Amino acid sequence: MNRFAWVLLALALHGSADAQSIIPHPKHVVFQEGRLLLGDSLQWDSGPVAAVRQAHAGWLPERLVAVLPTFQKSEGGSSRFSVIQVDDLDSPEAYRLQIDREGITIQYQSPAGVFYAGQTLLQLADPGVFAAKSGRVQSLPFVEIEDAPRFGWRGLMLDSSRHFQTVDEVLRFIDLMAIHKLNVFHWHLTDGHGWRLESKKFPELTTKGAWRIQPGYPEEGKAERYGGFYSQADMKRVVAYAQARHIKIVPEVDMPGHCFAFVAAYPELGCLGHPQETDRLFTYPADAQRFPPVPGTDVLCVGKDETLRVCLEILDEVMAIFPGEFIHIGGDEVKKSFWRDCDDCQQRIADESLANEDELQSWFIRKLDAHITKGERRLIGWDEILEGGLAKNATVMSWRGDAGGIQAAGLGHDAVMSPGTHCYLDHGQSHSPLEPAHWPGHENVEHVYGYEPIPRALNPKDHARILGLQGNVWTAFIHEEWLIDLQTWPRACAIAEIGWTPKGQRDFGRFRRGLLAEHLERLDALGVNYWWEEVLELGAWDPSMLDVDSAATEMRWDLSTQWDGLSGRELPITFQYLNGAHGLAIQKVEWFVNGEVVATVVQDGFAGAEHRNHQFLLPSHEFKSGQRIELVATAFGDGGTDSFGSVTVVQVATRRVR
Fold first, then answer.
1. Quick one: residue 613, left, alpha or beta (phi over 0 = left, psi -120 to 50 = alpha)?
2. How many CB atoms lie within 10 A of CB 60?
3. C-alpha span between 585 and 552 (Å, rounded)
4. Residues 114-143: pLDDT tens digits?
5. Would you state the torsion angle of the CA atoms of residues 259, 264, 266, 270, taken in this order, to the nearest 10 degrees?
6. N or C end of the chain: smaller count of CB under 10 Å?
7. Residues of 429-457 as b/e, b for ≥16 C-beta within 10 angstroms?
8. 645, β-bridge pairs
9. DSSP result, 396-436
10. Residue 527 to residue 521: CA distance in whole angstroms
11. How far is 20 from 365, CA to CA, in rounded Å?
12. Strand-by-strand arrangement of the 583-593 sheet
């Protein structure tokens, strides 16, 4: 079945589309009957001064300016286009947008409001306007919108260390963020597998630390030099591109852990003090959660004065390139056993009267915090920076659940919520065997959409301490851009809506219908290789259906009432283990019609902690109303009957999966 045929089926199964799909959904929107027909030109009506008109046009998304009619002087044009600054909006990013018979009116407080109104205008047009070659917008619906974001931090993180992206790939990632009103780009620039940030003061960070000998690269059976880095000019170009799209960049330079590449460049700054290679992945591309043992350390020796000096000078370079408010120092997963065995680190603990290695990490991060604060910036780190005591001006990024954010807010510090349970977009999102290798976990778009950044356990007086949320695209399993797309979208659409739309107006049913009706078509026009699947529930199994002696038995599901959605196409019947002590071994799957077998697939399948051959592709059959249609599986519990799972049809609509 082709992709759009399946989308039509999905709409039929799950409800019709809303009148208009805008993602993220506006705070207040009312559509009216009728459409504004656009002629060959628009009358710019925001003031007589040409310079003002030019500045306002520059605030609009470039894509919008390209598809709108030509702007004319105030006395010309077939429809009015007004951009008016007002003082009664409650956020610099807020806007009002009205389209009526007279034309288009945008009200704003700051240029960001004009930009976001422009992004909404684009989504009000035909999805084809997002294509590289698009004609002019012909008409727009009559509508009144008043809009503002719920949170000021609506972010995505891209890991450029584990696998390196080109500058153009990074710019495209930022452009896709802007379309969805995401406003923070967290750029993970250093880690054990590659240092990507050029340092003029410490060139070995990139001449050595940016490269690794990678098994499987450039092809199976080889192991060649892999890597790359961004020059300071490259990074300044990315900064300017993001600023034009009202996106703030938060650079991350990991200290004192995740520093394998750092120590490979400057071994004297590690606790071991001897040469080592940059860390590497087991193979290229990664195919499982396994990492080769590479001799060395990924922890800086914070007992040495020289280590602190180098780190502060690197931060000076980072702050000179990135003008944003926040500097991310990592601070997570520090293997403190190296410090316990290090004479220099133990001497530091004694000299500073510290209790243990947790307080040693806190001492080091407090030094970074003081330096970053002196530079009129703010330090942010993963929630492990709470261990041993939180630095005075630090903001916490809570990734190990919500606890870190709750603790930070209770201490009077700001927090950004980014839990691995919902916001790690490198985790799996499907049970289809077509899904590429990924970090373990299952977080589909509905699961992501269900996240709430203000935890129930948080004291109401601390709610304002939650700056927002962020989705993270770690790239251990993501070696090329098509996989970045597949892991990010449309789950990042859900992140965008959580961050923008008022909590009481979030509705996954509406969101999903909007994706199906128009937004996936927009992503198609943009060339995004997003992951999308439709899941049709057919039935479930439980221990009562299995033989206590682990003998093969027939499990039956009556699907007579679903005949119309099953007829006339191949059906990938998928067995998904959910829980229990035992997996399910499947030997055969059949269609029965009125008691007679009409289709059979025999294969050794297994659904358990791991899934193997658990999808059975049954051939097409023409079912009819009034027939007794049964799906029959011959299976047994693997070692017992304590097994629960679901039986579904999973149809994947992603362009590229391998």
1. left
2. 22
3. 9
4. 999 999 999 999 999 999 888 889 999 999
5. 50
6. C
7. bbbbeebbebbeeebbbebbbebebbbee
8. 541, 577
9. EEE-SSSHHHHHHHHTT--EEE--TTTSBTTEE----TTSP
10. 10
11. 48
12. 553-558, 629-638, 583-593, 596-607, 611-612
DSSP state of 25: P
CATH of segment(s) 153-507 = 3.20.20.80
- Per-residue pLDDT of 152-183, as tens digits, reads 999 999 999 999 999 999 999 999 999 999 99
Contact criterion met (CB below 8 Å) for 605 and 585? yes
Q: Per-domain residue ranges for the chain?
A: 28-147, 153-507, 533-652
Distance CA 384, CA 386 (A): 5
CA distances from 466 to 427, 432, 498, 614 (A): 24, 36, 13, 42
- Tokens encoding 159: 């890991």
For the residues of 244-302, what is the DSSP string, one character each? TTT-EEEEE---SSS-HHHHHH-GGGBSS-S--PPP--SSSS--SS-----SS-SSB-T
Read out DSSP for 173-191?
A: HHHHHHHTT--EEEEE-EE
In the three-class reduction of DSSP (H, G, I as helix; E, B as strand; rest coil), residue 148 is classed as coil
Round to whole Å and give the CA distance between 298 and 466. 31
- Phi first, then psi: give them for residue 476, nearest 5 degrees: -55, -35
The rounded distance, in Å, linking the Cα atoms of 435 and 576 is: 14
Under 8 Å between Cβ of 627 and 563:
yes
Enter the tokens of residue 314: 């690197």
Grade residue 6 by pLDDT with cuts at 50, 70 and 90: very low
pLDDT for residue 47: 54
Q: What is the mean pLDDT of the chain?
A: 92
pLDDT tens-digit series, residues 266-311: 999 999 999 999 999 999 999 888 888 999 999 999 999 999 999 9
Catalytic residues: 191, 258, 333
* Strand pairing report for 103-108 and 95-100: antiparallel
The whole-number average pLDDT for the span 2-31 is: 64
Q: Given this model, what pLDDT does residue 48 score? A: 47
pLDDT tens, 209-260?
Answer: 999 999 999 999 999 999 999 999 999 999 999 999 999 999 999 999 999 9
Please give the Cα distance from 68 to 56 (Å, whole number).
14
Q: Is residue 493 classed as helix, strand or coil in its secondary structure? A: helix
d(CA 262, CA 208): 9
Q: What's the fold here for domain 28-147?
A: Chitobiase; domain 2 (3.30.379)
In this prediction, residue 441 carries a pLDDT of: 86
Give per-residue pLDDT as tens, 366-404: 999 999 999 999 999 999 999 999 999 999 999 999 999
In this predicted model, what pLDDT tens digit does every residue of 571-615 receive, in sequence order?
Answer: 999 999 999 999 999 999 999 999 999 999 999 999 998 889 999
What is the third-level CATH fold of 533-652? Jelly Rolls (2.60.120)
How far apart, in Å, are the Cα atoms of 135 and each of 130, 347, 494, 587?
Answer: 10, 69, 29, 54
Which residue, 402, 442, 400, 448, is CA-closest to 420?
Answer: 400
Which pLDDT belongs to residue 542? 97
Beta-strand pair 103-108/139-147: unpaired
Residue pair 257/330 in contact (Cβ under 8 Å)? The answer is: yes
Which residues make Cβ contacts (< 8 Å) with residue 260, sequence separation at least 6? 191, 192, 193, 276, 278, 279, 294, 296, 297, 298
- Cα 500 to Cα 131, 180, 282, 495: the distances in Å are 25, 9, 39, 9
